[in-house]
User: Which sequence fits this backbone?
């Protein structure tokens, strides 16, 4: 069973931009969520995926991701996400043998930057780049739905 083990961090400064190997724009929408599980649709420039995530156990969770047609992805985003669609640019960075991503949000979460690293195990060792700030793995305030709610209340 595919397992996602990731840690999430705040981003400090702009030095990470010098290390980006590639970037991709995406629209990300939440189709359904219940008891820590979720179904998400993602639309990229040239493809779409549907992602099913199980409830977290520690920092890991089951994750299934499947390609779907772009037309289906667009329909799901427009008709089945209840307005919870986010636009972002995902920047890919290699650092000390690890793959990092920095998500740069636009629109409702403009100015928000979150870095993630996926690991082979919960206790895997890794080096932190200097632009990595506070770890926010598991912090409810940094779940996307809560970030959007907080922005709307301002």
Assistant:
């Amino acid at each position: 069973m595919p397992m996602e083990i990731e840690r999430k961090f705040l981003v400090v400064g702009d030095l990470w931009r010098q290390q980006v190997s590639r970037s991709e724009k995406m629209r990300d929408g939440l189709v359904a969520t219940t008891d820590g599980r979720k179904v998400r649709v993602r639309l990229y420039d040239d493809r779409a995926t549907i992602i099913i995530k199980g409830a977290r156990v520690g920092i890991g969770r089951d994750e299934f991701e499947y390609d779907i047609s772009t037309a289906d992805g667009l329909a799901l985003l427009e008709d089945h996400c209840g307005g919870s669609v986010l636009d972002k640019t995902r920047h890919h960075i290699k650092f000390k043998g690890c793959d990092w991503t920095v998500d740069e949000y636009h629109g409702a979460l403009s100015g928000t930057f979150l870095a993630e690293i996926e690991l082979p195990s919960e206790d895997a060792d890794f080096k932190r780049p200097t632009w990595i700030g506070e770890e926010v793995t598991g912090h409810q305030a940094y779940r996307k739905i809560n970030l959007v709610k907080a922005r709307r209340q301002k």
